[in-house]
Specification:
The chain has about 230 residues and is an all-alpha fold. It has one domain. The longest helix has 30 residues.
Amino acid sequence: MNATAYEFSTWILPLVFAITFHEAAHGFVAHAFGDSTAWNLGRVSFNPLRHIDPFGTLLLPALLLLSHSPFLFGYAKPVPVNFRKLRTPRLGMILVALAGPGTNILLALAAAAAFHLLPIVPANAALWVAANLKNTVLINVVLAVFNMMPIPPLDGGRVAVGILPRPLAVPLSRLEPFGMLILIGILILLPLAGSQFGLNLNVISAGLRTVTDFLIRLILILTGNS
């Protein structure tokens, strides 16, 4: 296996499972609170094939990896949730939204704890397994932190809509159709524009990295890897 294929294999499995568990968790909690939309469509499943988006889950991360991008990003097909069908719509929306990032943090904790099992892994596979575990921790924490940004349709945006008083929640919820454009603007276009004038406008990304680094250190401490 050449170096590129080896590196790709240590990233794609953690990414596929992180995204799959994230989306499935949304569906499970929505079903528990009374919305069977995802359940009826067969999307409440830990089968990656039900959640994989060919471009977002496979092609985009591969292109970023091959181009030596400083970040790795991907997405799955969103699990459909009809919030009006939830027994307690406001609380249900918050818990459905939190289920995805919460599951990612649990996966990161499990992967970090699994480092203690490396001594029993065959020597010829130990490095590959260690790389997968390391990337599992990183990808799941990044996914959780990124999704908790308070911008709809990200999970953090839906939590904010559920928590804020109606006069603030309604205008925030109306941003959902433009959420991805806003994210592209503040994470990519704004820093690029700032660099043309010698300004560092990469504040949001820097904040995300700070929170990500803190959570990874905390997870390593909690699992005895510090």
